Amino acid sequence: MGSTPLSCCLHYKVHQTPIAILKGSKDNVQLTCNHTIQNYNTILWYQQSTGDTAMKLIGFAFYKSITMEKSFEKHFNVSGDGSKEAYLHLVSLRSPEDSAVYYCAASQHSDVENLLSSTKTLADRKL
């Protein structure tokens, strides 16, 4: 009873490397995110631009299926497996657009498309 609510989850880890990086324009960068959370199958990548409080979703890996946001498709790439390790590739850095803080997160993603395709509409009325 003396433990805090978070003590149950402290052994779950999400790691992002490198923790800091300094590169020039037109350089390529790869960030790595891995986790050890059982049944978590998605790694998401976010960008927080300098001076902005909002985080923008870049893309995510749901298992080995990759989804990219349209506005990031030209200069960013996500690869890997969301159940363990995924990568964010920044291709040919642009200044100052790509100068930002990048975050990764692990999540347990539900397959909404399959869920919706398996629903049943009851329309068995007698006229």
TrEMBL record:
Residues 5-123 form the Ig-like domain. SMART domains: IGv. Keywords: Immunity, Signal. Gene3D superfamilies: Immunoglobulins. SUPFAM superfamilies: Immunoglobulin (SSF48726). The keyword Coiled coil does not apply. It comes from the Eukaryota. One of its GO terms (cellular component) is plasma membrane. GO terms for biological process: cell surface receptor signaling pathway; immune system process. InterPro entries: Ig-like_dom, Ig-like_dom_sf, Ig-like_fold, Ig_V-set, TCR_beta_variable. Pfam families: V-set. This is Ig-like domain-containing protein. It comes from Oncorhynchus tshawytscha (Chinook salmon).
